[in-house]
């Protein structure tokens, strides 16, 4: 299993069960290096969906009580586990990444630090679980991702925006 994408690269690879094993390994590292409880660390994103082609990056959801109270010691704990905070600005989320080496060119893992059991946490878990349980939605999501790749293999933000309408349509199902 080869993980990693260069900055702004968008590429899909076939599903591998190694992604789950890698998540479990990194989750153990996070528990060992932080005071986080096991239930606050979840595997999300397409690598968490059996059979789904995905970008070769492991997405990890980490829940804290209050984002505004996340302190330097926690970021030092994440650093010990190999994660660096990114300058990504997203509402209700702090993003960290793990890289292949100290050139910081190839990202292999993301941590999405959000408030535990609040709306974003619940939406991201729901999205994962919905696609796991609904084959039609899973196939449609893969089609959306492939549609983007027909026109470009770069533009991570554009790729995320391109998938946004589909993702929001699944989030709405949680509320209905």
**Helicity level, as a percent range?**
40-55%
Tally of separate helices:
5
User: How large a portion of the residues is in β-strands, by DSSP E?
Assistant: 15-25%
- The protein's oligomeric status is single chain
Q: What is the number of domains?
A: 1
Q: Compute the separation of the termini in Å.
A: 39 Å
Shape: globular
Largest sheet: 6 strands, mixed
CATH architecture: 2-Layer Sandwich
In terms of structural class, how would the helical and strand content be classed? alpha+beta
Number of strands: 6
SSE order, one letter for each helix or strand: EHEEHEEEHHH
Q: What name goes with the CATH superfamily?
A: Beta Polymerase, domain 2
* Average pLDDT taken over every residue: 95
The CATH class name reads Alpha Beta
Low-confidence stretches: none
Q: State the CATH topology.
A: Beta Polymerase, domain 2
Explain this structure to me?
This protein has helices at residues 18-33, 72-80, 119-133, 135-151, 156-175; strands spanning 5-6, 41-44, 58-64, 83-85, 94-99, 106-115. By secondary structure, it is α+β, with helices and mostly antiparallel strands. It has one domain: Beta Polymerase, domain 2, CATH 3.30.460. Strands 1, 2, 3, 4, 5 and 6 form a six-stranded mixed beta sheet that branches. A hairpin with an 8-residue loop joins strand 4 (83-85) and strand 5. Helix 3 (119-133) crosses helix 5. The longest helix is centred in the last third of the chain and has 20 residues, at 156-175. The protein starts with a strand and ends with a helix. The mean pLDDT is 95.
